[in-house]
Amino acid sequence: MAPNGNAHSTEPGEGEGTGAVRRRKAARYIVPVAVAGLAAATIGLVPAFAGSGDPDLPKITAQQLIEKIAASDTEQLSGSVKINTDLGLPSLDGLAGSLGGAAKGGQGGGGSADPQAKLMELASGSHTMRVAIDGQDRQKVSLVDKAAEYSMIHNGDEVWAYDSASNEAFHAKAPKGERDAGKGHGKHQKLPESMPTTPKAFAEQALKAAEKDTAVTVDGTTQVAGRDAYQLLIKPKQSGSTVGEIRVAVDSLTGTPLKFTLNPSSGGKAVVDVGFTKVDFAKPDASTFKFSPPKGAKVTEADDLKAQEGKQGKGAGPGEDFGKGLGMDFGKEFGKGGGDAKVIGEGWTSVLHLSGGADGAKKAPGAKQEKMPAEAQGLLDSLGDKVTGKFGEGRVFSTRIVNALMTDDGQVYVGAVTKDALVKAANEAK
After folding, report:
1. Is the pLDDT of residue 161 over 60?
2. Beta bridge partners of 134
């Protein structure tokens, strides 16, 4: 296999305007770069299943490798992915099952097929996934267990989740933004002026942004799922971060990120190890994304859940979150309780400060203070480390990568930083 270490840029073809070409380029490389960016911010993977020796590939600089990632036009692939997560938490399988059961029995619940409960399992332990991608309109991810399989399928306007163990399915419509993606040929779309429109520009901007807080280098080569890859090494320059280093294994031919590694600054095994064990860049068969509930399956409709919860005044339900990619803006949700959110510091040692409703309640004239039951207070005290400072008193709850400080007056500080860095941020907030 002849490696290709050069990044190419495409000039406008006959009949195409520069704006159209720029939009096409941006759409092409946003997906792999977004994946790499997410890994750099939150998760990573260890170097993958290396063969008998590191492959001998042409020398490449960090800028050239980032350009290669940005220039990747990979839109179709399939394969198997191994995930190992060690956040320092107990297994969440039982908790996820309990939530799924509660949802199943409770009014308006999504049952065991509800992704909100099922995907909690990925926060701990070892898991195997099968993935298939065919552009923006078709994706499938299956979590494979010994005796069962859980699948999430996006095919055009349809989104399904199915749990073979319980024979339950969850159905939603894809968010309108996803349904309309690519259908307007960019007629009414405008890229932000600050957004780089070529791989080289993206790489230069990324490296420039990283200069102050981050060291980015190419740290040799490896093999991932039988494919030759370069290793991009990302290391914080700041002290106080719980992130030790991040490694991104990049396919030498396609520029597709194949593996990510996040090693904590405290040492030991990787916090999260996720990467391909098998990968094929051929277009998946269309039948891969077709799904109909098996006979006798219990089907929960997201629209029905949303209607039920609207009547009960519970707001958005599992269907809405599922359709939005299972995400939520925690700071925004916290703020609904009368609080506020802001970021203290910058770079790898930035801390999210959530000033919540609890604090506001204590300051409100005549507000009645609710005392926590002794049993609950005892459990809370046993889980966290008590700390004091200018901010007052509180407790730090820790994982191997993310720590949170909850103060007695209702403030919350969260970040991928050490306990001392949290206390420092809380003191500065005062």
Report:
1. yes
2. 76, 138
